[in-house]
Design brief:
single chain, alpha/beta, Metallo-beta-lactamase, Chain A, Rossmann fold, 2 domains, seven-stranded mixed β-sheet, 25% strand
């Protein structure tokens, strides 16, 4: 039902593409991160709660929205969007035609973070899954434990008279971090890329702690004892280097890798990802009851081989999706930026 083309994941019967990376007439978008939603398509379809951030990122586009679970039929193909749990509004896309069901996962995680709509397993014949963290070494702690670590780090920095500088992707990750911060510790300053998305979310009725936009005119001494939340692209920037004394931390699943914190030259690494870990990937695949699994990005070869060893028909398909990355030059996920 779906094929992988130079433009993206294509359904010939409905003449639609899912998260295409080249300009197409009809694009179904799983979520607003820049590797999945791009400019240039003639028409877009995405969820109602994903719409504000996508419109902010892409500007004036021709689009329609859909509710989770609502069915749209195009030339006999039944299409519906189901929660992926990745960020607010993120969806898996289900397609059914003549009794055959495919699900394209986009990016997803199984832990309910209290911000994104919780992941919903969808039964299908063929499941297209990401595998950003498709290795057994990736096993996430409950987010409550991670936020306790972050808040303790902030408190210690405050006691030491330092600025707490924390990075997370501007769309989704930053707002999840904000929900988990103990705002009673001090003030929360945000980079403009984060604050712009905060404004979008607040207009949707999402409750976030009070934040202060930090600019080049913000006096460094006003940041001491407080926390600055910024995208990864600001690490080692002139803007960041003005903040002294400072303790620098990254929120990313990649912090589970030995040496990742040292290579990024930061003081702390908090293992917090908006993607499924090894157990989550396997739980999701099992819940679909799919006989065939197509692995699209991340540890694709390793994960596909593992699924084959479990008796599934599994294969790898090449896409331009990047998932979570520690390279801020690739994406900062609200595109301003990931």
């Amino acid at each position: 039902m779906l094929t992988f083309t130079p433009k993206g994941i294509y359904c010939p019967q409905a003449d639609i593409y899912i998260d295409p990376w080249r300009a197409v007439p009809k694009a179904l978008i799983t979520h607003g991160h820049a590797d999945h939603s791009r400019k240039g398509h003639q028409s877009y379809l995405f969820t109602e709660t994903a719409a504000p951030a996508i419109r902010y990122r892409l500007g004036n586009i021709n689009y329609q929205t859909t509710k989770f679970g609502e069915t749209t039929t195009i030339n006999g193909v039944k299409i519906s969007f189901h929660p992926a749990g990745h960020i607010l509004g993120s969806a898996q896309i289900r397609l059914e035609y003549k009794g055959e069901i495919w699900v394209a996962s986009g990016d997803y995680k199984l832990e309910d973070d209290g911000l994104a709509e919780a992941f919903e397993p969808v039964k299908c014949n063929t499941f297209i899954t990401e595998s950003t963290f498709g290795l057994p070494i990736y096993n996430w702690k409950p987010q409550a434990e991670i936020f306790q670590e972050i808040n303790d780090w902030w408190r210690q920095n405050q006691a030491d008279g330092k600025v707490s500088f924390l990075t997370g992707y501007s769309l989704g990750k930053a707002q999840r971090i904000l929900k988990g911060l103990d705002a009673s510790i001090g003030k929360i300053f945000t980079h403009s890329a984060v604050e712009n998305i905060n404004k979008v979310f607040r207009k949707q009725g999402i409750q976030l702690p009070e934040t202060i936009r930090a600019t080049e005119h913000t006096q460094a001494k006003s940041l001491i004892g407080n926390l600055v939340l910024a995208p990864p692209s600001t690490l080692n920037s002139n803007w960041m280097r003005k903040m002294k004394p400072i303790s620098i931390a990254i929120c990313s699943g990649w912090m589970a890798l030995r040496g990742a914190r040292r290579r990024r030259n930061v003081d702390r690494g908090f293992i917090l990802s908006d993607h499924a870990d090894w157990a989550g990937l396997n739980q999701a695949v099992k819940a679909t009851e799919a006989e065939r699994v197509i692995v699209t990005h991340g540890s694709t070869d390793v994960y596909a081989k593992y699924l084959q060893e479990q008796g599934l028909q599994a294969e790898v398909a090449t896409t331009e999706f990047t998932g979570e990355t520690l390279d801020p030059t690739i994406q900062d996920n609200n595109n301003t930026a990931n």
